[in-house]
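P.,

For your records, the input lines for the assembly:
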Amino acid sequence: MSSAVDQFKEQAEILTHDLRHRAIIQTALGKYEVVRDKSRGAFLDYAAARQAAAETKWEAVNHLDTHLEELVSKLEARGTKVHWAGTGEQARGIISGILRDKKARSIIKSKAMTSEEIHLNHALEQEGYEVVESDLGEYIVQLKHEPPYHIVFPAMHLTRGDIRDLFNRELSINSSDSPEELTMVARRVMRQKYLSADVGFTGGNFAVAETGMISITENEGNARLTAALPKTMVTLLGIEKVLPRLDDLALFLPMLATSGTGQALTCYNTMYGGPRQPGESDGPEEWHVILLDNRRTELLADPEQRDSLHCIRCGACLNVCPIFRNVGGHTYGTTYSGPVGAVITPHLRGLQEWKHLSNASSLCGACTETCPVKIDLAHHLLQNRRNSVRQKASTPWKLGFRAMNFVFNRPSLYALIPKFGRLGQMLHPLVKGTRLDPAYAWTKTRETPQIAPQTFKEWWKERG
Amino acid sequence: MTEREKILGRIREALQVEAPRPGQHQSHGSLRPAAGAPAAQARAWLPPVGESAADQLAAFRINAMNLKAAVHEAANLDALAGLLRSLAAEEGWKKIATHQGCLTGDACGALGLPVLQTDGGYDVHSMEQCDAAITECDALVAQTGSVLVTNRSAGGRALSVLPPHHVVLARREQVLRDLPAAFQLLRQKYGANYPSMISFITGPSRTGDIERILVLGAHGPKKLTICLV
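Structure tokens returned:
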């Protein structure tokens, strides 16, 4: 069985040499950068907005218990059923229970990363339910039997030609590769599903404690329809999504749009405050909200990295990350990829198995700089490296440091390093770039730097 | 112990230790943001909009049109009815869906078309066959070019997203400066009795999921028309 780290290395090796993949990603992200910068530039004071967003999230996360209790009591006061799930398994169990209770057959879903996190589709399909993703990008990757490539742009790695071939094969149609025509294919398929689905499933971007509302951000209108037509609505969201006040959305809705897609505001930003109320003409009869922990409280218990719970899942750090842009989203093998995924996955799924993600970083700090809620991602990657060694250092690691300690404390031994090094470099061309080369991991793709012909100390002595 | 108690217990235990405040690596004591909500001052940071009604109307028009929504102005209710008639003729509407309201009532009546009223319940399949939805709204937001609707002001949850063309009827005075003003309006208008759905509609439904190329009408309306009286 290949481990997470082997899988990462294999995939990264393939994709960094895949020029077609690189061109697709660079084109998509190039377009994103232009609109993102334009939207940020429209702010009167983007730096202050970012600081305020960080402080608001700090307040929300550092008083999470009181905000959650307020949220739940406000939701329940209007007839919403609230469930608490400690683990993904519990969340799946709650959802299965609701579906059984409602005698449901078919579920229409709008985009929810939490459902990817708990592998909901797979579980429900195993139980015999029909599950359809309504977001276009999610629908494409669902047809392709793949996880989303990116948390905001799930089908970013595919060209229109790829999608045409996929649709023509899976839906037995004969569409052209025009994005317009392909979108209309999905629209027609989905229309029937909205009308016939028993249950509408959504995620949530923000939960407003003050008024007991879940806010959903989208562009396509699929979440609006999912929350309007089926008789039962189920919403799964992480406990960290809470915001203290309704007015906070005046800041967070534009911040999410700006960083997520580069829009000033996405097309639909909708706040749901309950199931259909007396006197209202439509909407679900029942609304179930499931609050998911799934080891978020472990992140909360680490004050150093607690701010990674501020994350609004905009994907901005993925988009700027030189590693993500070269190795691609699937290589990570995680629900949340890119810098934020590398930070939180070791907490959510185990440090030793996922510590390699923290090395998939150039330490350039672009992620920290772009984060709209100021999560110190670049430092958290370093902290994960430190923590993993502190928890369990490998034998070569320990021996290496012991040897370094021994040599560095003895100047006469230390002085031999450049001497032997120069000798070694003279012989290096014999094996350089081959499997026999001890520095193969470096030299297979790069030149080795030359050791200077003379050290500073040697030069100083010679100079008298 | 219930799952709720377990999770809240874990949260309280975790929060025993302070976290550093944003932008700092070390903890500097307990942070309570300055009096009131930081986001309440959002106007000082968000994209600026002029103070006069004329500026705001102009900003709304520009922003909405950049989002590929159409904005029309009518001098009075008669002109509004005329505007709708020409839209209906142009697109060949055969059936429309709407809800009861001061602006929708007369304007839709004057069209002389079969009308589906959503008030008090309706058949979804027949709404799906309507060529246009004509609704009112709570406000128009100049800053973003958005239409603020609720299921109370705009005939339910589905009406503004199911038919292929959404036509919004609004009065000029409904144009608000920015998002903070929109949330203030919601607070004043509804108090604690909020509608179960509140939505900012910013342009017609769209997607960029295929090669980041904009396509309108992903799942919601392909066209959004705002008629100001």
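Two observations worth noting. Chain A has three domains: 1-41+308-392, 43-294, 410-463. The mean pLDDT of chain A is 95.

Regards
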